[in-house]
Specification:
Blueprint lengths: L13 H10 L13 H9 L2 H15 L9 H23 L8 E6 L2 E6 L8 E5 L7 E13 L1 H4 L5 E2 L5 E2 L4 E13 L5 H9 L8 H31 L3 H7 L2 H15 L2 H19 L3 E3 L4 H7 L2 E4 L1 H5 E12 L9 H10 L5 H4 L15 E6 L4 E6 L7 E6 L1 H4 L6 H8 L4 E8 L15 E12 L3 H10 L3 E5 L4 H10 L8 E2 L7 H10 L2 E3 L3 H13 L4 E5 L5 H6 L2 E5 L4 H6 L2 E3 L7 H38 L8 H19 L12 H29 L4 H24 L5 H18 L1 H6 L7 H32 L9
Parallel strand pairs: 9-16, 9-19, 16-18, 17-18, 19-20, 20-21
Antiparallel strand pairs: 1-2, 1-3, 3-7, 4-5, 4-6, 4-7, 8-21, 10-15, 11-12, 12-13, 13-14, 14-15
Helix pairs in contact: 2-4, 3-9, 4-10, 7-9, 7-23, 9-23, 9-24, 10-23, 11-23, 19-20, 23-24, 23-25, 23-26, 24-26, 24-27, 25-26, 25-29, 26-27, 26-29
Length: about 800
């Protein structure tokens, strides 16, 4: 039996229900996991660099050189933090649930019963009452003034009348009246679940930091293999060739030297610092009631140059409040007109707008009405009549001015009020009786007063939009409401919006759509699919787009945006796909999110120069010592400790320091413009020292000690250069690192572990001369680097990047 064949009010029989359950025609909907646990683990564990690190770690263990395997700790930390980050994103997506109502009311075998939403079947007869959420798409079979709120689906805030034959969509809410509806789509085919399925597609937020680091890792991955062969061959040659090295066992030391060169090339610490900076920023924001559902979103909002706002629930609180009364002739108004308004505000079936009258008008009539016509969204008016002799005698009509007075006699007054963003109703009176059966307006109606209502504007909306304007972030308002109403509210919060653009006239072509979006600020009557198309068009036009909203109609656009922002009061679907959720719904938190993102970007740019300098000089050392067949001048353990004290530990603190510099694209270009020449200087300096030390006949352990000391001095200087201006906590951090290095070179148990020996005068002199030359070269590089940065980006000249 199809839905259209069902004509009796008895609903399905038990046998028909059982048959549909057996056929799988139920409302059960298994939400597919956004990403499996296994795939997340594979993505974070089975990476090329983890493979290289694991292989190096295993070789050292097999060679009995566990002391040189300290680098494994960093690799493990990277894997754990990366996995946790994606598990959090997965958990948020898996919570996506559009349906709030756990039970549905159905009529079966001519009896009403409650069943689980998943147990609703095709052709079931739903019984809908005020407060119910529609569990599946259905067609209305019977209606007693049935009204639905579909704002979470369509963005329209007005109630929608439903009469027999109309379709009701899953996820909409009954706000007045009652009715029955025959289910026509269930499970994955329903409107709500289709939206949910599309929104649940897994994706990570676009991150310039993450993508830039990935580029570096890809380049390193291409060169690490050939360099490994080059270095290993050179180290074998140092020990007398392949045959002699394997006979003497020196091949083991050649392998250790090669591993030292390879591990130094991989900037694992940079990945770790980026993840930590994101995580700390997310925790700080959580304390301010901002939930960051994906860590890179902290950076993302700082890069946004255009933000799209839904009106309802974002600029406004989604509720209507009474504004003012505007009587036409106060002295000649019929008696009891305010009591009539009080009745409208207190009647049980009052809609949201009428209920706003309960507080300002609390003197309800003492007599019951003799006739009434309930409000209809199609008619846009309701009416009530009281008997002769009552203090509110006569017929009273409350509704839209253009619907109650089709002759437009009130058009001028109503339009002037509506232009200011106010919703306008008229109260009219007539001595003629009210015809309930015909549901027609009574004759001889006369206007008594215009009543204005306004949507409650969020108190922090104007302040936050002003902040974005100061920061050069453009704003577009895209709403399902009337364009003029949306434009008026936009003006209220400080936007220069003369008129609103009707989205029904939007072109389908993305290029043409982008042109329209560039010319207008406010758009009304926008459908969910159009919201998504708007975001896509803006992204294709080169913008980094944020989208805010709270309804299900916003979910697809929020998912498509670079950064999606949802309100805690919003739909579960919207919150689950958003990158950021404002737990207390306050827009005023967004500037703080931007500030956290800027801090992350600016500080990671600073520490990236440290790590990338290391990658460059490590690569340069590997190539130089491989080509010139010299023994690699470090043990892995020596590099691990020195890198930790000159790069890793200070980078951790530098990444978390306050930094309010505005975001400017080109993070990787600026970082490499310092790291490459500096890394080359470091590599050449170490090569020159090693070559001179070898020529001077300095022993292997002393050569390594001198190389490590030279790298320590240069590394500390690079740290100092990138930390400028040196003040506050930076003095303490750099001082602590210097103290740590003194311990490394002076405590016997540490020097023994690191195989350090007391340097001779020759070694000390060589280290001093080469260090001074390297420091001078680095200062010159930094001078030109700052000039380059200031020429290519509009930074505050008083600040260093």
């Amino acid at each position: 039996m199809s839905a259209t064949d069902v004509e009796t009010p008895t609903g399905l029989s038990s046998a028909e229900v059982a048959q549909r359950v057996a056929d799988g025609r139920t409302n059960a909907f298994t939400q597919q996991s956004s990403r499996s646990v296994a795939s997340i683990i594979r993505a974070n564990v089975l990476t090329l660099f983890n493979g290289i690190i694991a292989a190096c770690f295993l070789v050292l263990l097999l060679l009995g050189r566990w002391q040189d395997a300290l680098f494994g700790i960093s690799a493990i930390a990277n894997t754990v933090i990366g996995s946790v980050q994606e598990f959090r994103a997965k958990a948020a997506l898996d919570k996506l649930a559009l349906m709030h109502a756990p039970r549905a009311r159905v009529r079966r075998d001519d009896e009403i019963s409650e069943v689980a939403v998943a147990d609703v079947v095709l052709d079931d007869l739903l019984v809908l009452r005020a407060g119910d959420q529609v569990p599946a798409d259905a067609r209305v079979a019977a209606s007693a003034h049935l009204q639905l709120d579909e704002s979470m689906l369509t963005g329209e805030s007005d109630a929608v009348d439903k009469v027999p034959g109309d379709e009701v969509l899953s996820g909409s809410v009954v706000i007045a009246g009652e009715g029955e509806a025959i289910v026509v789509r269930v499970g994955a085919d329903s409107f709500a679940n289709k939206l949910a399925s599309e929104a649940k597609k897994f994706s990570l937020v676009a991150s310039e930091l993450r993508s830039s680091i990935d580029k570096v890792l890809r380049v390193v991955s291409w060169i690490v293999g050939p360099i490994a062969l080059l270095v290993f061959n050179a180290q074998i040659m140092v020990f007398g060739g392949w045959e002699k090295a394997f006979e003497s066992g020196d091949w083991r030391q050649a392998a250790v030297n090669t591993i030292a060169a390879l591990v130094a090339m991989i900037p694992l610490g940079l990945v770790l610092m980026t993840s930590i900076a994101f995580a700390v920023g997310a925790v700080k924001l959580a304390r301010q009631q901002v939930l960051v559902q994906e860590l890179a979103a902290v950076e993302g909002l700082a890069r946004v140059d255009l933000i799209c706002l839904d009106k309802t629930g974002t600029l406004t609180e989604g509720s209507i409040v009474f504004d003012a009364e505007h009587p036409f002739a106060p002295d000649a108004a019929p008696a009891g007109w305010r009591s009539a308004l009080a009745w409208y505000g207190s009647e049980p079936d009052a809609n949201a707008t009428a209920r706003c009258l309960a507080e300002p008008y609390d003197a309800a009539p003492s007599t019951a009405p003799v006739a009434r016509i309930p409000f209809s969204s199609a008619r846009k008016w309701s009416a009530v009549a009281f008997a002769e002799g009552a203090d509110v005698a006569g017929s009273w009509v409350l509704g839209g001015p253009e619907m109650v007075f089709p002759d437009d006699r009130l058009a001028g007054d109503a339009r002037s009020l509506a232009a200011s963003g106010l919703r306008t109703l008229v109260l009219a009176h007539s001595t003629a009786p009210l015809d309930e059966e015909a549901e027609l307006l009574p004759a001889d109606l006369e206007p008594v007063a215009l009543l204005t209502f306004r949507e409650r504007i969020r108190s922090d909306a104007a302040e936050t939009l002003a902040y974005f304007a100061e920061q050069g972030v453009a704003v577009r308002i895209i709403s399902g409401d009337n364009p003029d109403t949306v434009a008026a509210i936009a003006r209220t919060v400080g936007l220069d919006a003369t008129t609103g653009f009707d989205a029904r006239q939007l072109p389908d072509d993305p290029a043409e759509l982008a042109e329209v979006l560039a010319q207008h600020l406010v758009f009304g009557r926008v459908t969910p699919q159009q919201k998504k198309a708007v975001v896509i068009a803006l992204k294709q036009a080169g913008h980094t787009v944020a989208m805010t909203g709270d309804g299900v109609n916003d979910a697809l656009a929020i998912k498509e945006a670079d950064i999606g922002i949802a309100m805690e009061s919003g739909a579960a679907a919207t919150k689950a796909v958003a990158r950021i959720v404002l737990l207390d719904g306050r827009f005023s938190h967004l500037p703080r999110v931007v500030a956290e993102g800027r801090q992350v970007i600016a500080n990671i740019e600073r520490v990236s120069m440290l790590f990338l300098t290391k990658t460059v000089y490590a690569t340069g050392l590997a190539v130089l010592f491989g080509v010139f067949v010299l023994q690699f001048p470090f043990l892995p353990r020596q590099l691990s400790v020195i890198d930790g004290l000159t790069i890793g530990i200070p980078a951790f603190f530098l990444a978390l320091m306050p930094n309010a510099r505005r975001y400017v694209p080109g993070f990787l270009r600026r970082s490499l413009s310092f790291a490459i020449p500096t890394g080359v200087v470091v590599a050449v300096s170490l090569f020159v020292y090693s070559w001179l030390a070898t020529q001077a006949g300095i022993g292997q352990d002393e050569l390594r000690t001198g190389s490590t000391l030279l790298l320590t001095i240069i590394g500390l200087w690079v740290l100092t250069v990138l930390s400028r201006p040196i003040d506050g906590w930076k003095i303490l951090i750099i001082g602590a690192m210097m103290l740590g290095l003194i311990v490394v070179y002076s405590v016997p148990i540490v020097t023994e572990f690191l195989v350090f020996v007391d340097p001779s005068i020759t070694t000390a002199a060589l280290v001093l001369v080469v260090a001074v030359a390297a420091i001078a070269a680095i200062e010159v590089i930094r001078f030109f680097h700052l000039r380059y940065v200031r020429r290519t980006a509009q930074f505050d000249p008083s600040r260093e990047p």
